[in-house]
Amino acid sequence: MDHLDDLENRSIYIIREAYASWRQSALLWSMGKDSTALLWIMRKAFFGRIPFPVVHIDTSYKFQEIYEFRDKYTRHWGLDLIVSRNEQALSQGMSRQQGTFNCCSALKTDALNMVLDQYGFQALYLAIRRDEHGIRAKERHISPRGEQGQWDYAHQPPELWDLYQRNLAKHKHARIHPLLDWTEMDVWRYIQREKIPIPALYLANKGQRYRSIGCACCCQPMASNAGRLTQIIKEIASSDIAERSGRQQDKEDHMQKLRSLGYM
After folding, report:
1. What is the DSSP letter of 176?
2. Which CATH class is domain 3-183+251-260?
3. Rounded mean pLDDT of the chain?
4. What are phi and psi of 35, to 5 degrees?
5. Strand locations in the chain, DSSP E?
6. Domain residue extents for the chain
7. pLDDT tens per residue, range 156-191
8. What are the distances in angstroms from CA 232 to CA 48, 65, 208, 212, 255?
9. Which pTM was predicted?
10. Checking DSSP bridges between strand 173-176 and strand 54-57, what pairing results, if any?
Protein backbone atom coordinates (compact mmCIF):
# COMPACT_ATOMS: atom_id res chain seq x y z
CA MET A 1 0.00 0.00 0.00
CA ASP A 2 1.49 3.34 -1.04
CA HIS A 3 1.12 6.81 0.45
CA LEU A 4 -2.01 7.68 -1.55
CA ASP A 5 -3.66 4.39 -0.59
CA ASP A 6 -2.98 5.15 3.07
CA LEU A 7 -4.45 8.66 2.79
CA GLU A 8 -7.51 7.36 0.94
CA ASN A 9 -8.11 4.61 3.51
CA ARG A 10 -7.87 7.06 6.42
CA SER A 11 -10.27 9.46 4.70
CA ILE A 12 -12.78 6.67 4.08
CA TYR A 13 -12.46 5.61 7.73
CA ILE A 14 -13.26 9.18 8.91
CA ILE A 15 -16.18 9.45 6.46
CA ARG A 16 -17.73 6.18 7.62
CA GLU A 17 -17.14 6.89 11.33
CA ALA A 18 -18.87 10.24 10.99
CA TYR A 19 -21.77 8.79 9.01
CA ALA A 20 -22.27 6.11 11.67
CA SER A 21 -22.86 8.94 14.17
CA TRP A 22 -24.73 11.49 12.02
CA ARG A 23 -26.93 10.23 9.20
CA GLN A 24 -28.43 13.65 8.52
CA SER A 25 -25.40 14.93 6.65
CA ALA A 26 -24.32 16.81 3.54
CA LEU A 27 -21.16 17.30 1.48
CA LEU A 28 -20.11 20.82 0.51
CA TRP A 29 -18.95 20.84 -3.11
CA SER A 30 -17.33 23.89 -4.67
CA MET A 31 -16.29 22.01 -7.85
CA GLY A 32 -12.67 22.80 -6.97
CA LYS A 33 -9.99 20.11 -7.09
CA ASP A 34 -10.13 19.33 -3.35
CA SER A 35 -13.91 19.02 -2.96
CA THR A 36 -14.14 17.05 -6.21
CA ALA A 37 -11.44 14.67 -4.95
CA LEU A 38 -13.39 14.31 -1.68
CA LEU A 39 -16.60 13.67 -3.58
CA TRP A 40 -14.76 10.93 -5.51
CA ILE A 41 -13.55 9.34 -2.27
CA MET A 42 -17.03 9.53 -0.75
CA ARG A 43 -18.48 7.73 -3.74
CA LYS A 44 -15.93 4.99 -3.03
CA ALA A 45 -16.80 4.98 0.67
CA PHE A 46 -20.48 4.40 -0.13
CA PHE A 47 -19.97 2.02 -3.06
CA GLY A 48 -20.80 4.42 -5.85
CA ARG A 49 -23.63 6.59 -4.51
CA ILE A 50 -23.45 9.18 -1.73
CA PRO A 51 -26.43 8.60 0.61
CA PHE A 52 -27.06 12.28 1.39
CA PRO A 53 -27.20 15.62 -0.45
CA VAL A 54 -24.33 17.53 -2.01
CA VAL A 55 -24.53 21.28 -1.33
CA HIS A 56 -23.18 24.07 -3.52
CA ILE A 57 -22.97 27.48 -1.82
CA ASP A 58 -23.53 29.67 -4.88
CA THR A 59 -22.50 33.30 -4.61
CA SER A 60 -23.64 33.89 -8.22
CA TYR A 61 -20.12 35.16 -8.98
CA LYS A 62 -18.52 31.83 -9.88
CA PHE A 63 -16.81 31.16 -13.20
CA GLN A 64 -19.14 29.96 -15.96
CA GLU A 65 -16.90 26.90 -16.32
CA ILE A 66 -17.67 25.98 -12.70
CA TYR A 67 -21.43 26.02 -13.28
CA GLU A 68 -21.02 23.91 -16.42
CA PHE A 69 -18.81 21.42 -14.55
CA ARG A 70 -21.34 21.24 -11.68
CA ASP A 71 -24.30 20.55 -13.95
CA LYS A 72 -22.45 17.96 -16.04
CA TYR A 73 -21.17 15.86 -13.15
CA THR A 74 -24.31 16.22 -11.04
CA ARG A 75 -26.05 14.34 -13.84
CA HIS A 76 -23.16 11.97 -14.55
CA TRP A 77 -22.72 10.89 -10.90
CA GLY A 78 -26.41 11.01 -9.98
CA LEU A 79 -25.92 13.53 -7.16
CA ASP A 80 -28.70 14.89 -4.96
CA LEU A 81 -27.68 18.54 -5.41
CA ILE A 82 -28.85 21.44 -3.24
CA VAL A 83 -27.90 24.94 -4.38
CA SER A 84 -28.02 27.61 -1.66
CA ARG A 85 -27.92 31.32 -2.51
CA ASN A 86 -28.53 34.33 -0.31
CA GLU A 87 -31.06 35.88 -2.67
CA GLN A 88 -31.93 38.70 -0.28
CA ALA A 89 -28.34 39.90 -0.08
CA LEU A 90 -27.93 39.59 -3.85
CA SER A 91 -31.13 41.56 -4.48
CA GLN A 92 -29.69 44.32 -2.30
CA GLY A 93 -26.57 44.46 -4.48
CA MET A 94 -24.12 42.53 -2.31
CA SER A 95 -20.81 42.17 -4.12
CA ARG A 96 -17.08 42.59 -3.64
CA GLN A 97 -17.61 46.36 -3.86
CA GLN A 98 -19.10 46.21 -0.34
CA GLY A 99 -15.84 44.72 0.90
CA THR A 100 -14.48 41.19 0.63
CA PHE A 101 -15.28 40.37 4.25
CA ASN A 102 -18.90 41.55 4.01
CA CYS A 103 -19.40 39.78 0.69
CA CYS A 104 -17.98 36.45 1.89
CA SER A 105 -19.98 36.66 5.12
CA ALA A 106 -23.28 37.32 3.33
CA LEU A 107 -22.93 35.13 0.27
CA LYS A 108 -21.01 32.20 1.77
CA THR A 109 -21.39 32.03 5.56
CA ASP A 110 -24.99 33.26 5.68
CA ALA A 111 -25.96 31.10 2.70
CA LEU A 112 -24.47 28.10 4.49
CA ASN A 113 -26.39 28.88 7.69
CA MET A 114 -29.57 29.17 5.61
CA VAL A 115 -29.21 25.65 4.24
CA LEU A 116 -28.36 24.35 7.72
CA ASP A 117 -31.50 25.91 9.15
CA GLN A 118 -33.66 24.66 6.30
CA TYR A 119 -32.47 21.04 6.29
CA GLY A 120 -31.18 20.60 9.83
CA PHE A 121 -27.96 18.85 8.83
CA GLN A 122 -26.08 17.37 11.80
CA ALA A 123 -22.77 17.08 9.95
CA LEU A 124 -21.13 18.76 6.97
CA TYR A 125 -18.23 17.21 5.05
CA LEU A 126 -15.66 19.68 3.70
CA ALA A 127 -12.42 19.28 1.76
CA ILE A 128 -10.17 21.69 3.66
CA ARG A 129 -6.51 20.79 4.25
CA ARG A 130 -4.10 21.87 7.00
CA ASP A 131 -1.40 22.95 4.56
CA GLU A 132 -3.80 25.22 2.68
CA HIS A 133 -3.83 28.10 5.18
CA GLY A 134 -2.40 28.79 8.64
CA ILE A 135 -5.81 29.10 10.31
CA ARG A 136 -6.96 25.79 8.81
CA ALA A 137 -3.95 24.11 10.40
CA LYS A 138 -5.75 24.56 13.75
CA GLU A 139 -8.68 22.38 12.65
CA ARG A 140 -9.69 18.87 13.71
CA HIS A 141 -11.02 16.03 11.58
CA ILE A 142 -14.35 16.27 13.43
CA SER A 143 -14.94 19.84 14.57
CA PRO A 144 -18.01 21.01 16.53
CA ARG A 145 -19.78 24.23 15.53
CA GLY A 146 -21.96 26.65 17.52
CA GLU A 147 -25.52 27.84 17.00
CA GLN A 148 -24.60 30.15 14.10
CA GLY A 149 -21.83 27.91 12.79
CA GLN A 150 -19.16 29.60 14.92
CA TRP A 151 -15.82 27.86 15.28
CA ASP A 152 -14.02 28.16 18.62
CA TYR A 153 -10.50 27.76 17.20
CA ALA A 154 -8.88 28.48 20.58
CA HIS A 155 -10.57 25.51 22.29
CA GLN A 156 -10.50 22.60 19.87
CA PRO A 157 -11.16 19.06 21.16
CA PRO A 158 -8.12 16.74 21.27
CA GLU A 159 -7.86 13.98 18.67
CA LEU A 160 -5.56 11.27 20.00
CA TRP A 161 -5.05 7.82 18.48
CA ASP A 162 -7.87 8.32 15.94
CA LEU A 163 -10.40 9.00 18.70
CA TYR A 164 -12.75 11.69 17.42
CA GLN A 165 -15.22 14.08 19.03
CA ARG A 166 -18.79 12.76 18.78
CA ASN A 167 -20.57 14.57 21.62
CA LEU A 168 -22.58 17.33 19.98
CA ALA A 169 -24.99 17.92 22.86
CA LYS A 170 -23.95 21.58 23.17
CA HIS A 171 -23.33 22.20 19.46
CA LYS A 172 -25.44 22.78 16.38
CA HIS A 173 -23.52 20.52 14.01
CA ALA A 174 -20.10 19.05 13.21
CA ARG A 175 -17.77 19.84 10.34
CA ILE A 176 -16.05 16.71 9.01
CA HIS A 177 -12.65 17.15 7.33
CA PRO A 178 -11.52 13.86 5.74
CA LEU A 179 -8.71 15.51 3.71
CA LEU A 180 -7.20 17.46 6.61
CA ASP A 181 -3.90 15.51 6.49
CA TRP A 182 -3.53 15.72 2.71
CA THR A 183 -1.26 18.21 0.94
CA GLU A 184 -1.82 20.04 -2.32
CA MET A 185 0.64 17.66 -3.96
CA ASP A 186 -1.23 14.63 -2.56
CA VAL A 187 -4.48 15.89 -4.07
CA TRP A 188 -2.98 16.42 -7.52
CA ARG A 189 -1.26 13.04 -7.51
CA TYR A 190 -4.50 11.40 -6.43
CA ILE A 191 -6.43 13.19 -9.20
CA GLN A 192 -3.84 11.99 -11.69
CA ARG A 193 -3.92 8.39 -10.43
CA GLU A 194 -7.71 8.16 -10.27
CA LYS A 195 -8.31 10.14 -13.47
CA ILE A 196 -10.71 12.47 -11.64
CA PRO A 197 -12.24 15.20 -13.85
CA ILE A 198 -11.40 18.79 -12.94
CA PRO A 199 -12.46 22.19 -14.33
CA ALA A 200 -10.27 23.35 -17.23
CA LEU A 201 -9.48 26.54 -15.26
CA TYR A 202 -6.74 24.58 -13.47
CA LEU A 203 -4.94 23.94 -16.78
CA ALA A 204 -2.78 26.59 -18.45
CA ASN A 205 -4.34 28.63 -21.24
CA LYS A 206 -2.34 31.36 -22.97
CA GLY A 207 0.34 31.25 -20.28
CA GLN A 208 -1.98 31.43 -17.26
CA ARG A 209 -3.92 29.07 -15.00
CA TYR A 210 -5.78 29.15 -11.67
CA ARG A 211 -4.16 27.36 -8.75
CA SER A 212 -7.05 28.01 -6.33
CA ILE A 213 -10.57 28.75 -7.56
CA GLY A 214 -13.33 30.75 -5.88
CA CYS A 215 -15.43 33.63 -7.18
CA ALA A 216 -14.32 35.00 -10.54
CA CYS A 217 -14.12 38.55 -9.17
CA CYS A 218 -11.80 37.53 -6.30
CA CYS A 219 -9.39 35.14 -8.03
CA GLN A 220 -6.27 35.90 -9.99
CA PRO A 221 -4.55 33.45 -12.33
CA MET A 222 -0.86 32.67 -12.07
CA ALA A 223 1.69 32.62 -14.86
CA SER A 224 1.99 29.02 -15.96
CA ASN A 225 2.47 26.76 -18.96
CA ALA A 226 1.30 23.66 -17.10
CA GLY A 227 -1.43 22.29 -19.34
CA ARG A 228 -1.27 18.69 -18.11
CA LEU A 229 -1.40 17.08 -14.67
CA THR A 230 2.22 15.92 -14.83
CA GLN A 231 3.27 19.51 -15.51
CA ILE A 232 1.12 20.86 -12.66
CA ILE A 233 2.69 18.40 -10.22
CA LYS A 234 6.20 19.33 -11.39
CA GLU A 235 5.36 23.05 -11.15
CA ILE A 236 4.05 22.77 -7.57
CA ALA A 237 7.08 20.74 -6.49
CA SER A 238 9.40 23.61 -7.42
CA SER A 239 7.18 26.53 -6.35
CA ASP A 240 7.61 28.63 -3.19
CA ILE A 241 4.41 30.63 -3.83
CA ALA A 242 1.45 30.04 -1.49
CA GLU A 243 -1.38 28.04 -3.01
CA ARG A 244 -4.04 30.66 -2.19
CA SER A 245 -1.92 33.70 -3.09
CA GLY A 246 -4.44 34.57 -5.79
CA ARG A 247 -7.46 34.58 -3.42
CA GLN A 248 -8.61 38.03 -2.30
CA GLN A 249 -9.83 37.07 1.21
CA ASP A 250 -6.38 35.65 1.99
CA LYS A 251 -4.63 38.78 0.80
CA GLU A 252 -6.79 40.92 3.07
CA ASP A 253 -6.10 38.58 6.01
CA HIS A 254 -9.78 37.95 6.75
CA MET A 255 -9.60 34.15 6.91
CA GLN A 256 -9.39 33.67 10.68
CA LYS A 257 -12.30 36.01 11.42
CA LEU A 258 -14.39 34.58 8.57
CA ARG A 259 -13.84 31.00 9.70
CA SER A 260 -14.56 31.78 13.35
CA LEU A 261 -17.97 33.06 12.20
CA GLY A 262 -18.76 29.91 10.22
CA TYR A 263 -16.95 30.30 6.88
CA MET A 264 -15.80 27.10 5.19
Report:
1. E
2. alpha beta
3. 87
4. -70, -30
5. 25-28, 54-57, 81-84, 123-125, 142-145, 173-176, 208-209, 222-223
6. 3-183+251-260, 196-250
7. 776 766 766 666 555 578 899 999 999 999 999 999
8. 28, 19, 12, 13, 26
9. 0.88
10. unpaired
